[in-house]
Amino acid sequence: MSASELWRSKTMKHCNLIMKRDASAPILQGLMHLNTVQFIDMNENVPAFSRTFSKDIAKIYDVEQKLNFMRTAIEHSTVRIPDQLKNIETNSIVSLEQELDKVIGEYKSLAADYISNRQRNDEIYEQLLVYKNLSKVDIKDQAERDNEEVKLQAQITGALVSDENADDSLNSVVFTIQRKLTYMVIKTLYRVTYGNIYYETFQFEERLGNDDESGDKDLVSLFVPGQESLARCQKVLNSFGAHMYEVPDNVETAKKNAVEALDAFNMTLLLSKQRQDNILAQTAKYIDFWTEMVHEQRQITHTMNMFNTHEDMVSCRCWIPEDNMERVRAEIEAIDFREHVTAKTMLVEEEVPKGVSPPTHFPTNKYTAVFQAIVSSYGTPTYKEINPAYFYLYQFPFTYSMMFGDMCHGFINAFVAFLLIFNEKKLEKIHNDMFELIFFGRYIIFIMSCYSMITGLIYNDFYALGFNVFGTTYKWALDTSGTKFVAENTKVYPFGIDATWHWADNSMIFLNSYKMKLSVVIGIMQMLFGLIVKLINLINQKKTAQIICVWIPEFGFMFAFFGYMVFCIIYKWLVHWPEDSNPPALINMLIQIFLSPGTIDPTNQLFNSNKVQSGVQTAVFLFAVIFALWLMLAEPIHEVIHMKKHPNPETDRALSDIIVQQVIHTIEYVLGCISHTASYLRLWALSLAHSQLAEVFFDQLLGISIKMTGVAGGALSLLITYGAFFGATIGVLCMMEALSAYLHCLRLAWIEFNSKFFTAEGYTFEPLNGECGYGLAITSDMVRSE
Question: What GO annotations for molecular function exist for this entry (predicted)?
């Protein structure tokens, strides 16, 4: 697969597929594996629940739900899904549903028994812990002594005894309660008994049950005088979910019986768990195979719902790439022969209906897929329209590198991307949304970083430092007066920017001017190239009127004024300006073209001849005005003439609407040329921000340590500041700045470049495969509601 396949979308054939109803399922299954046929819905106006196979879709959805239930059970168990086996006995939805009903019924029965036995096992275990720790909450003697003192005090004072305390015997209650509720329970009991209770608590070290919240429990021994107080306490304990226990006469015997019961339940639970795991393990052998089978049947049944049905025959129209026609025919013939079809399946090529546009299809690989995804996020190219992704292959990393031009930072990102590419077989198994996004863009990150390294060499930026690789071309010498040293340029630096500029006092002035003008030149060249691409599209679509009325004035306006701007920038670069000269400010000079045409201020003179410059700029002004008027008037005139020759009440528009629309388009285009050119200055702005941040990090972190004189202090300082420098470099420059540059690239590609030629009015080619179809939950609900 070559990059040329991204140039234009694949040629599509409009076909009609006619076949026996009984043969439709195997034929669709074969075509699904080819992944090259997109079927057209012939029943768009038919509700989903009224289609022929909607009830079959509902049944498939039910089976899918049952499969999901078993898969969830497997994932929550210790069973692992092995390499899949093909189950020949369950090769249909009906047989699979019967098998799943049997398995699910048995599994649910075992699971219910297991839960019941586990609950009883937990109760016995808690009872055993209560028996083991009864001695730690035994306060019976103390409670009786305190109760006798209360009664004696009442007799001495002559206090009346209420009926409810007529029975003054102490009643013992032993219970367990969740630890977080212990304080609340005791406080409530204290209130309902008017403070006449005796209690002792003990915290179990062991966790009880499987619930994290209810696992921590306390053992409480409670003594209450009087039967009525006891009844109130029992109601309170029941409301809080406490477990009350009777104290056995022989605690040791009770503990022994509890241990024996625990052993029996543990064995029962073990056997029940083994039987559940056996069922899950047997199901796990086929779970993926069954899921794939149901998935295929779902898509096949959905596709059959698109067909027209004529007794025992079905038909449907479809789109097939021209390159794959022979493969599709061969597959259909092979299936007819294998299935012993009595009536041969026919695939008939038809003319594309008028007003219908074929789908857009671009074959991609793991490298080009990310570039095509960037285009598709903006819009799908119109059928046979030139694809912007073809130009993104070089343009995207190029514009990125102009904003992120640093040799070392580019190398770091390229190395990370290289590791992702080198280990892609292992890493593609990782399922994480954030990681998958980065992994999908590993190739574009790598190529952008490689371009950044090249641009870093041109900028002579290594962590924002300039390296004197080839030796500076400047030398210092006394001026003619012999009073000061001046830098003399002796030769041309072999490659990139002379490192001396990084250390010069006027470094920012020079580098900013260079990068700013370079951004404008690159931007105008890209926009003009976008207009040339638009011309190729119009020629391919045979729209001669559009070329004459729209393209020529658009290109002429931009080339006249902005082309002259590029010429002036390059001319000013090439001309030698002596130290005492006063080179013109290009911005003021270009503004004066429209403010005072034909007049050249001496401060704005660029050429040697004032007359030549005046004539050139007058011509630029006239061409810009002529092309703007051409763009404004030509299209409305052509449309009015066309409406008079070919009147159509449905599509004809009022003259005022035509004029207003074209005037708005002209104004938008003229202002857009200016704003889009200014937008390309982001190439300079982000490069400036990147270099300044890198320089600040170096000076304020590593620079402090380097300037230290003491060896010990310098080494310790370097150890500390290097960590901060490394973190800032990776986190801010290599990650945040790289993401910022990428987003600005996206803006330049989508708006400034695409707007010159890209209409994006197509729709994606979606062949029959495992990724298309109705939402089954919605469809099944429709069927059931009917």
Answer: ATPase binding; proton-transporting ATPase activity, rotational mechanism
